[in-house]
Amino acid sequence: MNIPLNIQSAETVDQQIERLLRSQIKKGELKPATRLPPTDELARQWHVGRSTISKAMARLAAEGLIERRAKHGTFVKSGSHRPAIGILIGPSLADENAQFSRSILKHLRSEMESNEKHCWTCRVYDDLTSLRTQSGAQYSTAYQNFIDDLRNYPFQGIIKLHGGLAQEEDSFLKPDIPRVRLGVCPKQSDPKLDVMLDLRRFTREAAEFMAEKGLRHIAYLRTLDSNRDSSMDLEGLDEAARALNLPKIQIHPLRDSPLPSELLEPLAYEKTLELIRQWESPGSANPWPDALLVSDDVAAYGVARALTEKNIDVPDRLLLMTSSNEGIIHRYPLPIMRYEFSPQTIAKTLLDLLCKRIMGDPLPPLPIALRGRLNPPAAHPTPGSFLPENAGQTLVAQSQWTPA
């Protein structure tokens, strides 16, 4: 084994050894089941201390490229036994409204495939919104499949997407398996998220944009669970209202209990019709707003349907804006501005944080709040227009619900 070390490199010696051994394993120069020389022999060969060799080998073992067998030595592992990263997803990936989860999963797989430093496989478990069956006597099929795989695969880490396993329900995981959790926002009953969407910044920046356009009367259709979710989005609106001296922002909750995503659109449709009746009623406590902000892009379908049915001119009569996800283009019946979060950034942040946990590296302050960005209306196709040339790379969502 000949590994040239460059003492002038910015990398430490153990990092050079780690990188070059990894390269030889991935290129097939070191075949599976190859026994590596003992630590003392490698230390003598490269004129370094034993601790330097041990650091490099510990990181390669954490990546699943080598394994240490007591009294037998260190061996290159075969690809079929690479450690797995388990991806636990709340909704079923087959659901029409699971575009967000599908997009994050696509980017997680891409990040793992392109990662030169780690050699992991990806195992996906979806439809975990409810771990147990309704009777509570038996675990769900998806849950049981995951439990079975825990016995048969060397899991290196777990990534839990929102709507999946609750913090108190994952006690069955081995305590030494690192994990990270994504959520739209922390639950009041379970605030321990690692990565979340910055909803405070979303509502604040949306209100600031509206005010800059002279739209000072703002209504907010809130799709979050009022009884369980944090109030970061409401705090962002309050901050903007105080800073810009805006009139009181109308807050219209859509639900006050957990609700399947497929029900958001019809509920938003009915709620918007109800709000239009209120706004048009003489002497109403809620006057007609200049702008309507919606916290969910699926619910925005129902809002758009109701506004279209009532012939409300958007954006001249009412500016409509929704939280959404970059790369997922919705075919709304009228123009809607989007505040977009990036599934690619979410995937990269989750994987980077999991790598730090696996390697025992220092962690940043948690939770990591990811911000989005406002996408101008010109960037979105209007009804009857064509998608951009690169739309083959984009998830296109169509409504599956038609008002009665």
| Overall average pLDDT | 82
Order of helices and strands: HEHHEEEHEHEEEHEHEHEHEEEHEEE
CATH topology of the largest domain: Rossmann fold
Count the DSSP helices: 10
Number of strands: 17
Query: Which segments are poorly predicted (pLDDT under 50) over 5 or more consecutive residues?
Result: 132-138, 378-396
Which CATH architecture of the largest domain? 3-Layer(aba) Sandwich
Class by SSE composition: alpha/beta
Provide the helix percentage.
Answer: 25-40%
- Fraction in beta strands: 15-25%
Structure description:
It is a single chain. The strands form 4 sheets. Strands 5-4-6-7-8-15 form a 6-stranded parallel sheet, sandwiched between helices. The protein has 3 domains: 13-80, Winged helix-like DNA-binding domain superfamily/Winged helix DNA-binding domain (Arc Repressor Mutant, subunit A), CATH 1.10.10; 81-197 and 345-370, Rossmann fold, CATH 3.40.50; 199-341 and 373-397, Response regulator (Rossmann fold). The protein starts with 12 loop residues before the first helix and ends in a 7-residue tail after the last strand. The radius of gyration is 26 Å and the shape is elongated. The model is unreliable at 132-138 and 378-396 (pLDDT under 50). The protein is built from 10 helices and 17 strands. 34% of the residues lie in helices and 18% in strands. Strand 9, helix 7 and strand 10 (250-253) form a beta-alpha-beta unit. Helix 1 (13-26) packs across helix 3 and helix 2 (39-46) crosses helix 3 (50-62). The protein is α/β, with parallel strands linked by helices. The longest helix has 17 residues, at 264-280.
